[in-house]
Amino acid sequence: MMFNFHSMTGVTIWTIVAVIVLLWLAARANPITVAGSFVRELLSSRKYFLHFAAVIAILLVNRLELWVEEKLPAQTDFTPAIFHLEGNLVASIQHFFEHPTLTWLSSFFYVVVFPAVMIVSIAVYTFHKRQSLFYAVCYAIIGNYLVAFPFYLFFPVFEVWSFHPDVRLLILDSFPTFEETYRSLSGLDNCFPSLHTSLSVTMAVIAFKSGNRFWRWFAGLTAAFIIFSIFYLGIHWVTDMVAGVVLGVSAALAGIKISERKTGKSKVYSSRNDSLGQ
Question: Which residues are listed as membrane-spanning (predicted)?
Fold first, then answer.
């Protein structure tokens, strides 16, 4: 059954529901047990706590970036250059596929499944004692944001719908208050690179290292669908996506490498856990 989002409260509730379902499917355990293992790890390990706190801090810095951007002198708008490069490609994708059901599903993945995948990744890797994967996720998320911030400040690119006359912000059909409630999390000109793309790809790359068959396929398919959704919903340019994929893969591989070095492990997955998620 399709429904509309009317507030961030509704988005939060559905994200919690998605997290609970995905925890059960990915960990094959009671979601409360999985969440409890994460809380215990945070309380018992100073290292765990500091890494998780750093991730929360970088997410909060995202709000600070918007404030800094307002204080900076006006920067050159690179949107016309992107449009000159791509033309009507995003408009063609949106017009070809447009359908109410697909609009709702794309919106659901964009605002609900996207954050749920990051939350579940952290919880499941903790529950399965894959500490190196937990640290890899932390380093990769921080890396994604640290690389993206300078572009958002000094290389502004506006979302497609706000520039292209033939592209509509379809997410408004399922989330009518999107501009009033969700917009505070992302500036209208914070388009290049696409963090929805980069973070989704990062989660997929790390998931494929986990050995959890359900999670690696779910994270991979989710990343692919979110990449489609950013075009379909009229938000990102193809150029944003390409940069996002490069950033996502690079951040994931760097996160894994740093984690291996700091944990003293040469690989993040052992054959003992090969049956996880099967």
Answer: 6-27, 48-68, 107-127, 134-155, 192-208, 215-235, 241-258
Let me know: does 234 contact 170? Beta carbons within 8 Å. Answer: yes
**Number of folded domains that form the chain:** 1
**What range does the domain containing 195 cover?**
8-273
**Residue 234: how many CB atoms within 10 A of its CB?**
23
Residue 242 above 50 pLDDT?
yes
Three-class SS state of 188 = coil
Do the domain assignments include residue 159? Answer: yes
User: What value does the mean pLDDT take over residues 78-95?
Assistant: 96
Q: Measured at the alpha carbon of residue 179, what is the angle toward residues 178 and 182, in degrees to the nearest 5?
A: 60
Q: Give the residue carrying structure tokens 């997955």.
A: 269
> What's the mean pLDDT in 192-196?
97
DSSP-assigned letter for residue 265: -
- Which tokens in the block code for residue 142? 């921080």
